Amino acid sequence: MPAENPDLFVAFRRELHRFPEISTHEFATQQRIKAFVSPFNPVKLTEVGNTGLLLQYGTDLSGPVTLIRADIDALPIHEVNEFAHKSLHKGVSHKCGHDGHTAILARLASFLSRKPPAKGRVYLVFQPAEETGQGAEAVLQDPAFASIRPDQVFALHNLPGYPQGVIVCRPGDFTPAVKSLIVKFKGNVSHAAEPEKGTNPAYLMALFMLASKELENTDPGSDEFALLTPVYSTLGEKSYGVSAGYGEVHLTLRTRTNQQMDVLTDRLLTTLSNLCAGSGIAIETATTEAFFANQNDPDAVEQIRTSALQLGFPYLEKQEPFKWGEDFGLFTQHHKGAMFGIGAGEQSPALHNDDYDFNDNLIEPAARLFLALIEDHHA
Fold first, then answer.
1. Model confidence pTM above 0.70
2. Which of 218, 288, 287, 301 is nearest to 255 (CA)?
3. Residues 171 and 258 in one domain
4. What is the pLDDT confidence band of residue 296, given thresholds at 50, 70 and 90?
5. Which of 77, 190, 196, 258 shows a CA-CA span of 20 to 30 A to 292?
6. Do 153 and 41 sit in the same domain of this protein?
């Protein structure tokens, strides 16, 4: 396999696009990646995080250790595109560009196969289950990862709406803390003609949703940024003679920092408790799909900026964090590092849109930027 041919990586990206798999189900994706990168001669290739892969380049145990991460999972979104590489899996497609991120890391593996680090080690992580916030934890807790102590970690995300190839970064908060809250309201059913003989949670649910709106600060530039988005609700059954006795409200919460998430969660649960007092309705709460805030180390950001400019790439320092969550934040909770964005084109459909597709022109420059970061640290 001639590693110098960039078209191979475009073809690989499009193959991944045709066969997407959702979080924690990336079994065939894992094997496709393994087959593609094995000829790039990693020192070691290990399955990690159940459906992910870990590649090692370099063998020096005394030098610096760099980790580069890409995500590999797709989304439960039906694709409307009709191009030749459209998804062949009904209701599942790569609408966040993880197929492209994977191809970038594979291209980086090809570079490292020709010129592995003389000092230290480099690890490439093909991480599953980013979309649900489960993948980073699965990798970090895997025994195969236990002996790796990277002194710097990097990742990227493609950015529709930004000029193609521009590198976007900022020190400190890059992506927010995100958590979804599930609230179950348990009352009692009754005849719809006699609602007083039951306990219908409908009005309590409505009050709770309105009260949650009052806790928002939707300015992404504010240190007190807090976004509470209703994502799902259900109430009763389609039985018009029955007053409902059960309902659910699901909210997604976003704040700039993990500490602010704790404060917001406490305020929301206190509000819920006060509203429910004396109502006769039992409340049950749970959280799911939690993402830690992505904290970019200033030195790592400066390394990204310097390397980008040396390569001739335009660089933009973002003034406020993005509003979408990214589970690479768990890596930056444990290790010094940073995530950056690369512009996918101002006319590109947005992430998670059903007509989105990754811009293949980003594979080569993104891989070269990662390589520059490695060479700078391992010189």
1. yes
2. 218
3. no
4. very high
5. 77
6. yes
